[in-house]
Amino acid sequence: MSGLVWAAGLGLVGAGEPAAAEPAAADANRQELRTLAEEAGRELEGAPALEVVRWAVERFGDRFCVTSSMADAVLVHLVSRVAPGVDVVFLDTGLHFPETLRVRDQVSRTMPVNVRSIRPRLTVGQQDGEYGPRLFHRSPDDCCQLRKVESLERALVGYDAWATGLRRDDSPSRANTPVVTFDTRRGKVKVNPIAAWTQADVETYISQWDVPVNELFGRAYSSVGCWPCTRRTRAGEDARAGRWAMFEKAECGLHG
Ligand code: SF4
């Protein structure tokens, strides 16, 4: 018999090795990341976005990545100034506007980053076959789970920290977004360098650095997601009012 034995939940381990070693190490790593995130969240509150990015890059190196919806490339640009070659995760749901894919392609072509387009396990056609057509109009939470949340979880394997472009002024539900926090669900550090930026700060950065922006913003869209769940907004509406407008839903589940 080989010197390897099966241990529940662990896969193959060497005979005689303590089966609990791997989970114990994972628990310790998780606790260390949590402590680190909580301390950094306090210490970096109020710090410039670049300083928050520098902290993450110095602390995590290539175990840090950026996520982007490609509504604009502000966060990607900011991080690329500190960490050229950084991985950028884009969740390619198969239901994006062509304009969004154009931003993704432009970022990939013109910026010093490594764009990783992550697709869901099921194509849109396979999802229609398994769950019925237009799941997004019947059960958007399930659709987001299948096309975004599961993809993100798969994409983040191998990283200890991820950056997002969440901002406090995006919506009331994001008003308390910390600059660094612990993502309990995924056991990773979540870095939100531009959490305190206003829309005016974003626009200033875009024009200062000539950053790629989704063309839909020039056509009365104020937040851009998948085409079936995004509509134009009217004057006076919340910036995210055009997302899942037919439902009591404000977030896709990536940040919950
Ligand atoms: S935003 Fe809409 S289409 Fe995109 S994954 Fe969520 S429910 Fe599906």
Question: What is the element layout, followed by pairings?
Answer:
Layout: E1 4-7, E2 11-14, H1 21-43, H2 49-60, E3 64-67, H3 74-82, E4 87-91, H4 98-110, E5 114-118, H5 124-131, H6 135-138, H7 140-155, E6 161-163, E7 180-183, E8 188-191, H8 199-209
The protein binds iron/sulfur cluster (SF4).
Residues 93, 95, 136, 140, 143-144, 147-148, 225-226, 228-229, 252 line the site of iron/sulfur cluster (SF4).
Catalytic activity: [thioredoxin]-disulfide + sulfite + AMP + 2 H(+) = adenosine 5'-phosphosulfate + [thioredoxin]-dithiol
Binding site for [4Fe-4S] cluster: 143-144, 226, 229
Enzyme class: oxidoreductase
Which short descriptors sum up this protein?
8 strands, alpha/beta, Rossmann fold, two-stranded antiparallel sheet, disordered N terminus, binds iron/sulfur cluster, 256 residues, globular, six-stranded mixed β-sheet, 8 helices
Write a brief caption for the model.
The chain is of the alpha/beta class.
If you had to describe this structure to a student in words, what would you say it looks like?
The protein has a single domain (23-219), classed as HUPs (Rossmann fold, 3-Layer(aba) Sandwich). Helices cover 38% and strands 13% of the residues. It has 8 helices and 8 strands; from the N terminus they run E-E-H-H-E-H-E-H-E-H-H-H-E-E-E-H. The protein has helices at 21-43, 49-60, 74-82, 98-110, 124-131, 135-138, 140-155, 199-209; strands spanning 4-7, 11-14, 64-67, 87-91, 114-118, 161-163, 180-183, 188-191. Strand 3 (64-67), helix 3 (74-82) and strand 4 (87-91) form a beta-alpha-beta unit. It starts with a strand and ends in a 47-residue tail after the last helix. Iron/sulfur cluster is lined by residues 93, 95, 136, 140, 143-144, 147-148, 225-226, 228-229, 252.
